[in-house]
Design goal:
CATH superfamily of the largest domain: P-loop containing nucleotide triphosphate hydrolases
Structural class: alpha/beta
Mean pLDDT: 86
Largest sheet: 7 strands, mixed
Bound molecules: guanosine-5'-triphosphate, magnesium ion
Helix content: 40-55%
Number of helices: 14
Strand content: 5-15%
CATH class of the largest domain: Alpha Beta
Order of helices and strands: HEHHEEEHEHEHEEEHHHEHHHEHH
Radius of gyration: 24 Å
Amino acid sequence: MNIDLNAILNDAVKDMPIANIIVIGKTGVGKSSLINSVFRGDFAKTGVGKPVTDNIKVIKKPGVPLQIIDTQGLEVADYEKTKSNIENYINQHNNSDQSENYVHLAWLCINDTGKRYEAAELDIAKYLISKGVPVIVVLTKTNAFKNNEFADEVKKAFKNYSHAVCSTRALSEVIYDEDDEDEVIGVRKVKGIDELIQLSYEVIPEVQKKAFSNALSVKNKKALDIKKDQASKEVLAATALAAAAAATPVPFSDAFTLVPIQVGMIAKISYTFGMDVSKATLTTMVTSLIGAGGAVYVGRAIVTGVLKMIPGIGSVVGGAISATTASVITKTLGDTYVLVLYKLAAESKSGEIDFEMAAKLLKSKVSF
Ligand SMILES: Nc1nc2c(ncn2[C@@H]2O[C@H](COP(=O)(O)OP(=O)(O)OP(=O)(O)O)[C@@H](O)[C@H]2O)c(=O)[nH]1
Ligand SMILES: [Mg+2]
C-alpha cells in the first residue's frame, strides 16, 4: 500500500473555510487594539488592508484563515454614508450562495468611557440582526467591570439587537499618582478579552469555528481552551475512522494502514491550534514528524511507540490490531499531541506556537 501524503495534506487544508468578522465603531474607539489582542500575529497591525470603499477595508494576513472587515466613520457626520456602505457590503456578500463569503459575526464597538451610544449604532445593530449576522456589542476601554451603569443602559437598549454586550480593556494602563507624574501607583490589566472570545466562539456559525480557533492568539487563556476543545473533536473523528479501518483486524505488519488517518489527524489538530494555513508549513511539519523513513516503517513505529504508552496493551505486538486497539492507539496519539500543543501554547511569549518544536516533542514522547 502506498501512502499519498499529498492527498492527505490537501484534504486537511480544504476543510477550513475562513471566518469573516466585521468590526464597526467610531474612529479611535479601539477597534484595531481589540483585533490585535484577540487574533494572532498582531493581525490589524501586520495584516494587509485592501480598501473596498473609502471607509471599509478588508484586512487579511497570509496563513491566517480570517478576514476582518474594518470600518471607519461611524461619526454623526459620516453615518449615512458608512451605513449604506456597510449595508451594500452585507447585501453583496450574505446573499450569495457561498456561506464562506458571508459576514459571520459583527463586533459593534462603543467607547465605555464616552458614556453614550448613538442612534446610528442602534440602527446598524438592528440592520445586522435583520440580516442574520450575529452581533456582539463591545464596550471598549472599560474601567468598571462591575456596577457599570452605562453598561446596563447599553444592555437594555441593545437587548433585541445583539447577542451579548461585553466589556473589554484591550490594552493595559499604568496609573500615576495625581500629584506626582513619575509615581506609578498601579496597573490596570487587559480584561474582558476572554469573555469576548468565548461569546464570539458561541455565536459564530459552526462551519467557521475551526478557522476562528486557528486565528486566535494563544495569549488568552480562553483561546487555549477553545483550541483544545476543537482539536479534541478531530481526535474523536480520527479515532472513529481508525476503528472502522480496523473493523477487520489489521495484521501488525500492515499497521501503516492507520498512518493516513493519523497523519490527517495531526494535520487537523495543528490547524486548529493555529498553524499557518498553507500546505508548505504543513508539509514541513509532517516531514519533521515522520521523517523520511518511509510509510511502512513509520506505521509500525507509531504503533509500537504509542503501544508502549498504553499499559496492558503491549502484548498485541506480533499479533493483529483490532478495532479497539486501533482506536486506542489513535486516541492516545491525538491526545498526546493536543497536550504537547497546549503546553507549548501556554508557555508561548509571542502568542504563536512553534509547530516544528511540537512535532519534535511529540516524536520524543511516542519515541519513534
Ligand atoms: N487606555 C486604553 N487605551 C486604549 C484601549 N484600546 C485602545 N486604546 C487607545 O486608543 C487609541 C485608538 O485605538 P485604536 O485601536 O487605534 O482605535 P481604532 O478604533 O482602530 O481607530 P481607527 O482605526 O482610527 O478608527 C490608541 O491610542 C490606543 O492606544 C484600551 O483598552 N485602553
Ligand atoms: Mg483601526
